[in-house]
Amino acid sequence: xxxxxxxxxxGIFCLMFVAWIFSKNRRNINWxxxxxxxxxxxxxxxxxxxxxxxxxxFNWINSAVVKILSFANEGIYFVFGPLAIPPGVTGPAGExxxxxxxxxxxxPSLIFFSSLMALLYYVGILQKIVKAFAxxxxxxxxxxxxxxxxxxxxxxxxxxxxxxxxxxxxxxxxSELCTILTxxxxxxxxxxxxxxxxxxxxxxxxxAGHLVSAxxxxxxxxxxxxxxLYPEDQHPITLGKEADVHYEKASSWxxxxxxxxQEGVKMLVGIVALLLALLGLLAMVNWxxxxxxxxxxxxxxxxxxxSLQKILxxxxxxxxxxxxxxxxxxxxxxxxxxxxxxxxxxxxxQHLAQYxxxxxxxxxxxxxxxxxxxxxxxxxxxxxxxxxxxxxxAPNRAKDLSALGFRALFAATLACLMTGAVAGxxxxxxxxxxxxxxxx
Length: 440
Hints:
Elements: H1 3-21, H2 31-49, H3 52-80, H4 102-105, H5 109-122, H6 125-141, H7 145-153, H8 166-169, H9 174-186, H10 190-200, H11 207-229, H12 253-300, H13 308-322, H14 330-358, H15 364-373, H16 380-393, H17 398-426, H18 429-437
Helix pairs in contact: 1-11, 1-17, 2-3, 2-11, 2-17, 3-11, 5-10, 5-12, 6-7, 7-9, 9-11, 9-17, 10-11, 10-14, 11-15, 11-17, 13-14, 14-15, 15-17, 16-17
């Protein structure tokens, strides 16, 4: 253990204090939520990082995800041939990789995982997992069954999680709506997770297990940050009760696979379109900022290299410190966090892999902490997706959802940082070595 582990522990409470400062109504804060969130997160992290059974489970999950990803690669290779071979890997016929191509080597796995998740929903496995988490959140934290169910669903799916509570959205309180928006943006869908594993597996073999752990840890973090920023001041209709899962089941497993793959294609096209638009716009904004920086530099007789990512990174410096990131890695970690805010975590994870390869992030501890902190949809594009998607399900709440959007994005960002801090409490260089050296 080091001083950085202590900083991570204190960082949890500092992050919650930031949420408390900006709270809409501090008098109504449910401190039971705060207590149980911290207790659940610390207990789960301790179990995963240090208890032998937890280490075994971590290794099993990591191996399972990586193995499933290899099945997806079979279909990708069949369709795209040598274009699908990542760097450092030899193809089935002995072909060599021509280099990393995002569109052919990482993104297509989303279609396979989308079908797999749809199939698991069809046979009822995911519903049982979701209801188990929802039961814990509802009864320990004393929040509504609807927001518990939606938050639990976000551990395994994305915007689709709101479909599970569709009948309740129209009557939800403002605090509940803030929570479901926050939960959506503070977590990642299991389908998208496959892409990040593909980015980082060779540089960080235990990444799949860490991302699954991060998804679970971020769910209660989303609840506490939401309830600190927008405490409940009304009486939810499902308060303390279990909500029923709303799920439109397909007629057969074949139809389920077809629908799942089609939804995967829609997500794939949406991600590609989003990256093309956001990265292009970012380049345009950075061109203007760089030009302005050069002019200011000439006036001050200094070299000033500015970009939007770098400007945002300065905001994240204190938060990187609160997560327990070692001093030498704070600049790079902060850039990744700032980058996620404007161009999605997908780009940040890709750059994280590059930083690891190039040795630009020195301490293995920093890699773990930032991997957890980046594990969420807390960015501008996601705000539009979740507000628009939920508004489509309940048009009468569109105005309320729009008003709550940026507060929920702030809560989701703090929740992701809190998850990074929790990981930082239990992470040492030796612990990272142990997890990466386990057979995968």
